[in-house]
Amino acid sequence: MEAFFGLLEPYASLYERVFSLSRARHEHEELVDTLRSGFGVHVDDLDQLLLQSAGRNPHVAAELQDRVVETIGFTGPGATKARIRFLDTVKRLDGEQLIQILTLAPSLRFERGRGSRSVASYTTLRVPLTNLFFMRDQQAVTDRGIVIGRLAKPQRRRETEITSFAWRASGEPPIAQVERGTFEGGDFLPAGPFALVGTGDRSNATGVRELMEKGLGFPEVAVVHQPRHPLLDRPDPMVNMHLDTYLNFPGDGIAVGHREMLASARVEVYVRDAQTYHLLRETTLLPYLEEDHGFRIIPISTLEQLCYASNFLTIRDRVIVVPDVARNAERVLTNLRQVAERDPGRYHRLYLRAAREFAELRAEDRFFPRTPAARDAGVQSVRVGLENLTGAFGGAHCLTATLERA
After folding, report:
1. Are β-strands 319-323 and 276-284 bridged in parallel, bridged antiparallel, or unpaired?
2. Counting C-beta atoms within 10 Å of the first and last residue's C-beta, which end of the chain has fewer, N or C?
């Protein structure tokens, strides 16, 4: 329901474009079914995880009701009585209603007309959590456990209150929480003996330091500075808002990424000594992966990067669930053309490149992952249609929080 309100004004809700809500729901169901039925992955829905925990534990149920009472607001004539009545009413609400109150944050304002005994009620939603379905960002699951982040945009700030409560309620209490800076889970990519942490528009330097101090134990951590897209004369952080929007790992020793951004992204390499990390050296991301760690890079084009080709979910070594890039491409290109028409000085070159690549990739039918490089690397894939959900700025990786890795 929260996405319904988000679509009334996509830009303010941090969405890329308008999309069909009913089709987005179907796409989400298809993704979950693919993971469960196709691969035997255990998938929990956040709301059900929280409600099941409340059903088992009366303390969790009481806290859930308390949070709902704190979330809803009452103002105007009769507000005090209305709140008192709600304290009794909340005990009889069903689970779905409780979750909707948490995500929508309604506030009721009462007005009484002059000489009238009737009271009119007006309901306002105070920043509903229109991005909560992007479960990657509220936390990162590191080598030490769940670390709760702090989201950069005020529209999303309350999301971590719900997810941290859900993890505690389900018996998976977070080991740490970022409190001073900002950090989002889309900027965290573990890679065996080392990890990459992105910093930029969504995760700032203070948040990354907190993450390293409280939540990481990797022998080596590479802090990747968000690069400017090479075809933009000034940064647009939404083009590559998180690390996972231009880089991901489909298997051991293999990376999928946009080479131009990998080549320009600055990297600070830290090594762990006793209980702290120390800066070892600085480099850029492409040689760090290729030369320092021997990764084979599967390149994606500018258009494929914009279509969330790297925002896939790795199920096991060299097996991925990936957004259907070919189906996304036309919508992404149409939206980019409209953006370029409004601001040609900034986006015209990006649109021209993407349009040319669209014609080439469609003619040869080689949208990622149907590319020679992916085939030669032995990458197997299942494509899921996410052309509506990607309209909210995210793909299969963004939509899921991986709680357990082999």
Report:
1. unpaired
2. C
List the structure tokens of 322. Answer: 């990936």
Same domain, 68 and 210: no
18: left (phi over 0), alpha (psi -120 to 50) or beta: beta
Tell me whether residue 148 is in a domain: yes
Task: Note whether residue 405 is domain-resident.
Answer: no
What phi and psi, each to the nearest 5 degrees, are found at residue 35?
-70, -45
Give the pLDDT of residue 116: 67
CATH number, residue 10: 3.75.10.10
The whole-angstrom separation of Cα 164 and Cα 176 is 10
Which pTM does this prediction carry? 0.95
Torsions phi, psi of 284, nearest 5? -120, 165
Structure tokens at 34: 């693919």
Segments of the chain with pLDDT less than 70: 115-116, 406
d(CA 203, CA 185): 9
Residues 38 and 53 reside in one and the same domain: no
Question: Does residue 310 fall inside a structural domain?
Answer: yes
Same domain? For 13 and 96 the reply is no
Q: Is the C-alpha dihedral spanning 251, 252, 256, 257 positive or negative? A: positive
Q: 349-367 burial string, b = 16+ CB within 10 Å, else e?
A: bbbebbeebbeebeeeebb
| Co-location of 340 and 363 in the same domain | yes
- What was the pLDDT predicted at 297? 98
* Claim to verify: residue 284 and residue 356 sit in the same structural domain: yes
- Domain identity same for 64 and 180: no
- Write out the residue range of the structural domain in which residue 243 sits: 2-43+131-392
Closest CA to 203 of 216, 190, 187, 220: 187
